From TrEMBL:
This is DUF4272 domain-containing protein. It holds the Pfam family DUF4272. InterPro entries: DUF4272 (IPR025368). It comes from Bacteroides gallinaceum.
Amino acid sequence: MKKMKNEALKRREKTLKVLNALGIDHCEGLPLIGEERLCKTQEQVCKRFLASFFSAMLACDYNSDREFFENEGRKIICSFLEQFDVKNELYPDELKIITGDCDERLSVNVSWNAESCYALMWALGLISSEEMEKPSNGCDTRIMVKFTKQYGTFDEIMSACKMRSETEVLDMFDLYYNYHWACVDHRINPKTKCGELDEEVVMERRKALEWLVSEEEDWNEISLDT
């Protein structure tokens, strides 16, 4: 237990250095990240990334071009889901996008999963930690499109990834936990400094990081309290 607490304290010290450099306030009483463990395998992360990314892109089509969504978009995405054999990995809300049983509210929610996918790409070693530490703007989905287009099978994508260590995941989780607190507190108390952080981006990426260290299968079932 002592070793675990020391690791958690060192992790928080590392987080505070980043926060201070970015001019972001922190909460002294925010619980430490120490008992959590990496619960998802590289295979699970790859499958979640692909299923969520494809459905998020289709949700974007629903929001921007309804005709394309109905006539071509759904066919294209369904072919990708079959190609990489991840259709069974879809969450209920994502499946509704695929079947067309959705509305604008649902499509907007699912489209935001692109940010969660960005965090999973980081966990898979495909995004640098420097980039992941700067959630001031939404991710460039072209990065994900370019990555997936290079491969024809799920096994090829698995081979292109290298899962980050548990320590790296917990360090980033702690940072985003603190980011999220600053964003939420700033919304309630504008005097709290949250730098250039975007709360929606932070929350969605934290959701994916929480999922990595949770036994829950559906990240929508994970509490994101601060």
